[in-house]
Specification:
alpha+beta
Length: 414
Amino acid sequence: MTKNQKIKHTLQQTKKRRKSQTLVSFELKISKNKLPKSIIKKLHQLFIETKWFYNAFLASSRTLSYKIKSVQVRNKNKEFEQKELTLLSCQMKQSLITKVKDSIYALHVLKMKGNKVGRLKFKKELNSIPLKQHGHTFSVFPTYIKIQNIKHKLPIRGFDQIENYCEKHNINLKDVEFTKANFIRRATNFYLHITVAVPKVKKYKTTPKEAVGIDFGCQTQLTISNGNEAVKIEYIVPPNKKIRNIHKRISRSEKQNGRKTRTKNKFKKQLALRKEYEHISNQRKDIANKVVHCLNSSYEYVCYQDDNIHGWGKNHGKKVSHTGIGRIKSDIKKKSLTPIEVDRFFPSTQLCPKCESRTKHNVSQRMFKCSSCLYKEDRDIKSAKIIRHEGLRIREIKGLEQTSMENLTSLLIS
C-alpha cells in the first residue's frame, strides 16, 4: 500500500467509527502555579510564533508552505526581520493554514449572499492554536498533557469531567477517543478545549411533559410562566469599581505618553483589565447555565419569542450588555429538549388572554389593561403566558402536519 492509500483507508475506518459515536467537548485548565517561569515563557512564545506565521501567510497571498522554518516579521521601527519558528510544529502550521482558508471561504459565502465583506486583517494577538491529532500534536493523560515541541509535562485540572461523564452513561474509559483540541490563552490562564468521541447512548426523557413560556425584557430580564404560576428573574452584573479605576489610569497614561506608545506599565494595566472582564463574563455564564439547567430539568417544551436582543442594545445598551440575555436565548435553542420558537412579530405584549383583542401600552406602563373587557394583569407575566399558549399551538400544528405526511407516504407505498 502506498502512503495515499493508507491515508484513505484510515479515513474510511474513522468514518465508520464516527457513525456509532457522538462528539462531546470538555475544557481542561492548565495549573499555571505548578509550572516554572521558563515554561510559561515558552507557552507565550508559542502564541507569538503562531501570530507571526498567520500574518506571514496572509501577506504571502496564501502561498507560504507549512515546512518553512522562518518568517519575515515587522518590528517597531517598521522594518522587516527574519524570525525563526522554533516551537511551532508543521502540524500546527497545517491546521492554521486550514483555519485561514475556512475563514476566507466563509467570507466568500457571505459575499455571494450580498453582504458587505472586507478582507482578513493582520492580527496583533492570536490566542488560539488548533491541535488536530492526538498522540502527535498533543496527548492527554489524567494528571497532565503534552504539547508538541514543549518537552515539559503541563499539569491540568478537569479530567474528572470525562470520568464523571463515563460513569453517568456507563461508558468504559478505554472506549473514549480523543479527536482534536484547541489550545487557548486567556488573561488568567491557559486552557485546552478537547473534543472526545464517545459511544452513542440512548437518551431517555425523564422530564415531565410540561410546557413553559419565557418573556425576555430589559427591566425584568426573564419572566417564566407554566400557565398557573409565574416567576420573575432580575439580575445585572455590572463592571466593578476596579475596572473603572484601571480605565482612568490607562486614559491618564495615554494623555501623557500618547495612545500609540506601548509601555510595560500600560501592558500590565491592560492585562489586569482583561482579568477583571473575564471574571465578570464568567459570572454571567454561571447565571445563564443555572437558568437553562433548571428549565431543561423541569420542562420538556420551552416556548420563547425570537426577540431582537441585539437591536435592544441601541436603546438600552448597558441594561442588555450587563445581563447577557442573548446567551440564555442561544443556550435554550441549543440545549433544551424541544425548543419552540414563536415569531418575532407576534404581538405577545398587546394581545388579551380573555377576549384576544389588541391594546397598545407605553413601555413605562407595567400593568396590562384590556380596552374591551378591562382585564388586568402584570405585563410581563401576561406575555409569558401568551408565548406559552402560542408555542403549544405551533407544536400541535407541526404534529398534525407530520401525521398527514406519514399517512400520505403509507398510501403511496400501498
